[in-house]
Amino acid sequence: MSEFAGCDGGDPLARTWVLGFEHGESAAEGSGRQVEDDGYPIARQRTYRYNRQIFKLLAAIEGGHVSDWLSFAERKRPFVKGASGYFKGNLFPYPCHEDAAWSDAAQGETGFVSKERYRAWCRNHRFPVVEEWIARASPDLIIATGITRRHDFLGVAFQREFVRMEEHRVDVPGRARRFFSASHHGRLLVVLPHLSGSPLFAANATLQAAGAQIAALWRAASTRRQASDRGCAQAAGGV
């Protein structure tokens, strides 16, 4: 419930947010918990497969090539403390190695005897807090990972307003995969398969193609917002 608990950080007023479901355990550090705060430098982030895949996708969205992910990351510094433009967080704060895992340590630290009760509590109490963070930052683009949880991401991204989701396909040779999007008032939410656990979607060719599709959806959402703003201004001027 505390400010940005369970999040890796970055710019809390960023235009682009990346949301996971929950921290996984890191082979690089042996635990999903944060090490002593060092500002989350690119040197550390690049040891995580998930972050490398996100860097590739962001590079593609912004018109670059996935193969240039490291130069993109070092130039833009996504999620690094003090850098601007990007924020990275999670819906649920407690780190788990597997989606269904709920250890004795987790029970002891959270006070919940089951993961189902923990998640139900978070949906009722933590999700509204995450919604407030998003409302305050007003990001244009939210990239979420985990399509089976897309309705959780949808509710949080748009403060539980009814917004219709659309399904998209990324078709590259041998790698037809799907993702989802929703847009409202100029904000675009895209929900992708988890980029560490989906080898087909995480392939470079798929990320490149998906990045181009997301960029087009983002431009369309921005155009609709600008048209809406002009319409409102004209209506106000005619009163």
Description:
Strands 1-3-2-4-7-6-5 form a 7-stranded mixed sheet, sandwiched between helices. The protein is 41% helix and 15% strand. 36% of the residues are buried. It starts with 8 loop residues before the first strand and ends with a helix. It has 7 helices and 7 strands.
Topology overview:
Elements lengths: L8 E2 L5 E5 L21 H4 L3 H13 L7 H8 L9 E5 L13 H7 L4 H23 L3 E5 L4 H8 L8 E5 L6 E8 L2 E6 L11 H35 L1
Parallel strand pairs: 2-3, 2-4, 4-7
Antiparallel strand pairs: 1-3, 5-6, 6-7
Beta-strand residue percentage: 15-25%
Biggest β-sheet, characterized? 7 strands, mixed
Read across the widest sheet, the strand sequence of neighbours is 1-3-2-4-7-6-5
Helix segment tally:
7
What structural class do helix, strand and pairing data support?
alpha/beta
Terminal residue distance: 44 Å
| Coarse morphology | globular
Radius of gyration: 18 Å
Low-confidence stretches: 29-33
Number of strands: 7
Q: What's the mean pLDDT score?
A: 89
Helical amount among residues, as a percent range?
A: 40-55%
The H-and-E topology, N to C, reads as EEHHHEHHEHEEEH
Task: Note the main attributes of this structure.
globular, about 240 residues, alpha/beta, single chain
Task: Characterize this entry briefly.
The chain has helices at 42-45, 49-61, 69-76, 104-110, 115-137, 150-157, 204-238; strands at residues 9-10, 16-20, 86-90, 141-145, 166-170, 177-184, 187-192. With 239 residues, the protein is α/β, with parallel strands linked by helices. Strands 1-3-2-4-7-6-5 form a seven-stranded mixed β-sheet, sandwiched between helices.
